[in-house]
């Protein structure tokens, strides 16, 4: 309903879906020594090499399968924690973002079957000094993408603050273990926005700030977020509802 009501805004969404590949014991991330830990985080993010990239064949097979199925997938990369990956869906208009994300998740499970690997969307599958898994949602309206759009982006950020708790309630289960204020997150109890700050709830990309138009990135949603509810909530809040 909210998308139909504001159809003229032409809302674009891009969702960054992170996930963790696990062995079939559902306890050990792919590439980790059973009962132990790999080397500390650092060399895994967008890395290369068999000693640090665990599951690239699954990521690439998933990307190809999504393209074949007509999913609006736009990229993929290895994430900070070893065995953790990400792919991006979008830009999609309105409710279509949820359609494409849900189908991409189904395809991911089907692809992982062939490799005898389990996929988890838990926000914090491994406790301790390891990054969690999120589903950052990039959002813009037609006005935000046009010259002078930064005005509407800042207005949207200001409107999200008072609704922070309402958003958190639908941004995924177990998100409190991920949003700690560490590992490139803002504390679940705080709300702040800023330019090029990965420790904010809402990040305004540097290019957007420089050009005075573009989009915002909501970094709060967890990897297991329900995309229809989250995208609709972002729309309604930024429209002042």
Q: Describe it for me?
A:
It is a single chain. The chain is an alpha+beta fold. 32% of the residues lie in helices and 19% in strands. Strands 1, 2, 3, 4, 5, 6, 7 and 8 form an 8-stranded mixed beta sheet that branches. Strand 2 and strand 3 form a beta hairpin. The longest helix has 19 residues, at 96-114. The radius of gyration is 18 Å and the shape is globular.
Question: Which descriptors apply to this entry?
Answer:
241 residues; alpha+beta; eight-stranded mixed beta sheet; 32% helix; globular
* Radius of gyration, taken over Cα atoms and rounded to an integer in Å: 18 Å
Strand content: 15-25%
Report on the biggest sheet. Answer: 8 strands, mixed
| Helix content class | 25-40%
Order of helices and strands: HEHEEHEEHHHEEHEH
Q: Report the average pLDDT across residues.
A: 97
- Helical run tally: 8
Distance, first to last CA:
13 Å
**Content-based structural category:** alpha+beta
The shape, in one word, is globular
- Segments where pLDDT lies below 50 for 5+ residues? none
Number of strands: 8
Task: Give me a quick take on this structure.
By secondary structure, this protein is of the alpha+beta class. Helix content is 32%, strand content 19%. It has helices spanning 2-5, 56-69, 96-114, 142-145, 150-160, 164-169, 206-211, 227-238; strands spanning 12-22, 73-78, 84-93, 118-120, 135-140, 193-195, 202-204, 216-218.
Outline the fold blueprint:
Layout: H1 2-5, E1 12-22, H2 56-69, E2 73-78, E3 84-93, H3 96-114, E4 118-120, E5 135-140, H4 142-145, H5 150-160, H6 164-169, E6 193-195, E7 202-204, H7 206-211, E8 216-218, H8 227-238
Parallel strand pairs: 6-7
Antiparallel strand pairs: 1-3, 1-4, 1-5, 2-3, 5-8, 7-8
Helix pairs in contact: 2-3
């Amino acid at each position: 309903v909210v998308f139909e009501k504001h159809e003229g805004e032409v809302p674009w969404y891009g969702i960054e879906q992170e996930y963790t590949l696990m062995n079939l014991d559902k306890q050990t991330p792919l590439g980790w020594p059973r009962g132990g830990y790999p080397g500390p985080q650092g060399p895994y993010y967008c890395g290369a090499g068999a000693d640090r990239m665990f599951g690239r064949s699954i990521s690439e097979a998933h990307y190809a399968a999504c393209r074949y199925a007509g999913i609006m997938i736009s990229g993929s990369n290895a994430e900070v924690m070893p065995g953790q990956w990400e792919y991006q869906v979008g830009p999609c208009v309105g409710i279509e973002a949820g359609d494409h994300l849900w189908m991409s998740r189904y395809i991911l499970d089907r692809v992982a079957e062939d490799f005898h690997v389990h996929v988890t969307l838990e926000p914090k599958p491994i406790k301790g000094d390891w990054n969690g898994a999120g589903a950052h949602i990039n959002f813009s309206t037609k006005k935000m993408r046009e010259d002078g759009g930064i005005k509407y982006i800042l207005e949207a950020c200001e409107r999200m603050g008072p609704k922070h708790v309402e958003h958190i309630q639908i941004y995924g289960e177990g998100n409190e273990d991920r949003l700690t204020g560490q590992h490139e997150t803002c504390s679940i109890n705080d709300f702040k926005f800023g330019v090029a700050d990965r420790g904010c709830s809402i990040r305004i990309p540097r290019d957007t700030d420089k050009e005075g138009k573009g989009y915002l990135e909501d970094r709060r949603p967890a990897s297991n977020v329900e995309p229809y509810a989250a995208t609709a909530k972002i729309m309604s809040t930024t429209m002042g509802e």
